[in-house]
Write a structure and sequence with these properties.
The protein has 317 residues and is mainly α. The chain is built from 14 helices and no strands. Helix 12 (252-283) runs antiparallel to helix 13 (295-301). It is globular, with a radius of gyration of 27 Å. The termini are far apart. The structure holds protoporphyrin IX containing FE. Protoporphyrin IX containing FE binds at residues 89-90, 93, 140, 143, 148, 159-161, 163, 166, 275, 279, 282-283, 288-292, 294, 297-298, 301. Heme-dependent dioxygenase that catalyzes the oxidative cleavage of the L-tryptophan (L-Trp) pyrrole ring and converts L-tryptophan to N-formyl-L-kynurenine. Catalyzes the oxidative cleavage of the indole moiety. Keywords: Dioxygenase, Heme, Iron, Metal-binding, Oxidoreductase, Tryptophan catabolism. It comes from Colwellia chukchiensis.
């Protein structure tokens, strides 16, 4: 240690002493941990001796999360500043969509097994994921029409319409449409994954089976329908929900399940609406890069309900 440094440490000690007397009451503060070395003098936090620092032979945070891959996947096609925002908002959305799909698949399994508690837990998580996704439109809305036009042509015909993660969610929730597979023909694994889901029971199909298990008479034609077709409202399902909503204490689990489904549809519709509205704000009534009419096409999706009877039932109560 040099003399200069000695002097510095000496004066630091003295300053600390003086400080101690004036800041005494802080030691009683639960948020001020005097043992954890926060160095109030230079506003730094020294490393604690227990902190692991050598990751030559150990798995680090970045290794576990494959951050090298994740953080090198942002490859703008132009030198436009805002393209990075555009890429990151899409990539993060895709990750959240992936998690929502993962959770919905487990919700379907829990409902099949009539294990409602864990199903409620994951469905509640899906709702929060959608709220998070909806919030992200506000970041995208900082992209002005002129900023976006600087790189829009470079996107070619790519569009969120080709998002396999999003289509998976629509199918898992019951908005089946075989024509949506067409844009995935060039990607065999996405195509396969979606065609499998198209033919499987959706979350709502499983909920309707749960209604039959609880003793409600559901039309056989509905129970034996081709599940790859879009779900259409049915009187026997409406009647079952009417009984549930009229006697919530008697059918409490189904009642709670119904409200959780309404939560998901509500959150999903908010995402659809904010997408449409942000698109309108950024490109007006231009056609989409994916070839649709744009805002008009997105607006039509707002009329699609995953659980139509759950909204209809409210009118009849
Ligand atoms: C400047 C930003 C955006 C614009 C202008 C835009 C525009 C559009 C348009 C016009 C469509 C209709 C299909 C087409 O013709 O392309 C569409 C569909 C879609 N976009 Fe976006 N979008 C934007 C951002 C996003 C983001 C951040 C996501 C997040 C994943 C996203 C996901 C989707 C999805 C999933 C669809 C299909 C919706 C459906 O089938 O109803 N978009 N977008």
């Amino acid at each position: 240690m040099t003399n200069g440094e000695n002097q510095k440490t000496g004066s630091k000690k003295q300053a600390n002493k003086q400080k101690k007397s004036t800041t005494e009451p802080l030691s009683n503060c639960p948020f001020h941990d005097s043992a954890n070395n926060v160095n109030a003098d230079d506003n730094t936090r020294p490393l604690e001796s227990g902190i692991h620092q050598d990751f030559n032979d150990e798995m680090s945070y970045g290794d576990y999360l494959r951050l090298e891959q994740v953080l090198s996947a942002q490859q703008p096609l132009t030198s436009e500043h805002d393209e990075m925002l555009f890429i990151i908002i899409h990539q993060t959305s895709e990750l959240w969509l992936k998690l929502a799909g993962h959770e919905l698949q487990s919700a379907i399994g829990f409902i099949q097994a009539e294990n409602f508690g864990p199903a409620f837990k994951v469905i509640a998580r899906v709702k929060q994921i959608f709220m998070q996704l909806t919030q992200s439109w506000n970041i995208l809305a900082t992209l002005t029409p002129s900023d976006y036009l600087k790189f829009r042509d470079d996107l070619g015909r790519s569009s969120g319409f080709q998002s396999c993660g999003y289509r998976k969610l629509e199918f898992l929730l019951g908005n089946k449409n075989a024509a949506m597979l067409n844009v995935h023909q060039a990607n065999s694994s996405a195509y396969q994954e979606l065609s499998n889901l198209l033919r499987k029971n959706s979350l709502y199909d499983e909920v309707i089976i749960a209604l039959t298990k609880a003793g409600f008479p559901i039309d056989n034609t509905l129970l034996q329908r081709d599940v790859s077709q879009a779900y259409q409202r049915n009187d026997s399902v409406l009647d079952a929900w009417l009984s549930v909503y009229r006697k919530p204490e008697q059918y409490f689990e189904l009642y709670e399940l119904a409200e959780k489904l309404v939560d998901i549809e509500d959150a999903f519709q908010q995402w659809r609406f904010k997408h449409m509205y942000t698109v309108q704000r950024i490109i007006g009534y231009k056609k989409g890069t994916g070839g649709s009419s744009g805002v008009g096409f997105l607006k039509k999706a707002l009329d699609i309900s995953f659980f139509p009877e759950l909204f209809e039932v409210r009118t009849h109560l």
